[in-house]
Amino acid sequence: MAYNAVETITRKRDGGRLDDDQIRWLIDAYTKGEVADEQMSAMAMAVFFQGLDDAELATWTQAMIESGERLSFADLPRVAVDKHSTGGVGDKITLPLAPLVAACGAAVPQLSGRGLGHTGGTLDKMESIPGWQASLSDEQMRAQLASLGAVICAAGAGLAPADKKLYALRDVTGTVEAIPLIASSIMSKKIAEGAAGLVLDVKVGSGAFMKTPERAHELATRMVALGNAAGLRSVALLTDMSTPLGLAVGNAVEVAESVEVLAGGGPADVVELTLALAREMVALAGLDVDPADVLKSGKAMDAWKAMVRAQGGDPDAALPVAKHHDEVLAEHSGYLTGLDALGVGVASWRLGAGRARKEDAVQAGAGITLYAKPGDKVVAGQPLMVLHTDTPERFEDARAALEGAIQIGAAPVERTPLVLGRIG
Ligand code: URA
């Protein structure tokens, strides 16, 4: 049956339920260009305000999956487990996590994207490694997964094309933050990807889409339910994103920090989250190993080097360094009580680590190195962070983004726990 776009929009606008066939028709007609962008924009706004119930959400997600191809890793000699982060500042966890979980015995396909806005993209980070190539054919990706157990590469255009179109529309119509639209967007791609298990890292705080634990909990619960109902065993961790993860924010600086973790060092929070996510993935894959032992053994570093080399990169080459550096100093003595993730993320983006339009290039060396984190004692005049860029005219805008982002108080503060909850 053919539905009418205006009636479909007004039904949702007025708080009604959409029928399964109506949803399938809407997604299919939008993908084919028969429902216009302005109509789908109105629909996205109606969903933003009225929501989708669980049955509507399941049908919406399934329709997005059916708009494109489905992969399967069932023929691999290892169990494929996937991870997705809803995005945060300094979130480089995929880089140490994929080789670590591969070294534990699972297969980890990380079909990733480039960054847009203040959260960085995994491919932008990896591309700062000299020679490394993001694009692999389907056969190359599978061959690498079978032989090495880990691949980080560009997601092909074939997975959930309806989401690609709808996400671009949401980005320019103020409808990104709708929980059902985020849940269906992420889970349609993850279910279509065809792994056996999925660990979701749902970020909470100023640097994340979800600013409150309540909203993050709702998003995580709905995504886990969608995954499990579709046969993708799913677990979510809710993790803090009120302050950046680790001490490096940018591209090459985040690769360097990831390599430190693989070498047995690195900031405590990055190590903690890498191991927490790895334990969940290993459990989903049915493996009886402790990722902390594997990390200590050096096998994760071996897997990283093999993974980088397989895609043309030189894991031992020096990473690019920005041409200009500028220190941000502590204005008072005391304790760092706040270092706002959003402020630091926007500053790093303005330094050239991120892009404003998808056609823009990023600077490999741009970003921020932090010298202090919330809870640390600081002395007036000491450097709190260093800003890096190839284009020094950007320093002023970056500093403006940091205004109000750094708080120093007289008394120490408790560090916020990193893992705030688990759903699954
Ligand atoms: N990431 C996605 O893939 N989709 C969203 O809607 C938000 C974040």
Topology of this protein?
Elements: H1 5-13, H2 20-32, H3 37-50, H4 54-66, E1 81-85, H5 94-104, E2 108-112, H6 122-126, H7 138-148, E3 150-154, H8 161-171, H9 179-193, E4 197-204, H10 213-229, E5 233-240, E6 248-250, H11 252-262, H12 268-284, H13 291-297, H14 299-310, E7 324-329, E8 334-339, H15 341-353, E9 367-370, E10 377-378, E11 383-389, H16 395-402, E12 406-409, E13 419-423
Parallel strand pairs: 1-4, 2-3, 4-5
Antiparallel strand pairs: 5-13, 6-9, 7-11, 8-10, 8-12, 9-11
Bound molecules: uracil (URA).
The biggest sheet amounts to:
4 strands, mixed
The H-and-E topology, N to C, reads as HHHHEHEHHEHHEHEEHHHHEEHEEEHEE
Percent of sequence in beta strands? 15-25%
**What form results from the Cα inertia axes?**
globular
Bound small-molecule species: uracil
The total of helices stands at 16
> How helical, in percent, are the residues?
40-55%
Structure description:
- Helix 10 links the parallel strand 4 and strand 5 (about 235-240).
- By secondary structure, the chain is of the alpha/beta class.
- Helix 4 (about 55-65) packs across helix 9 (about 180-195), helix 5 crosses helix 14 and helix 9 runs parallel beside helix 10 (about 215-230).
- The protein has helices at about 5-15, 20-30, 35-50, 55-65, 95-105, 120-125, 140-150, 160-170, 180-195, 215-230, 250-260, 270-285, 290-295, 300-310, 340-355, 395-400; strands spanning about 80-85, 110, 150-155, 195-205, 235-240, 250, 325-330, 335-340, 365-370, 375-380, 385-390, 405-410, 420-424.
- The strands form four sheets. Strands 1-4-5-13 form a four-stranded mixed β-sheet, sandwiched between helices.
- The structure holds uracil.
- The site of uracil (URA) has 7 residues, from helix 9.
- The site of uracil has 7 residues, from helix 9.
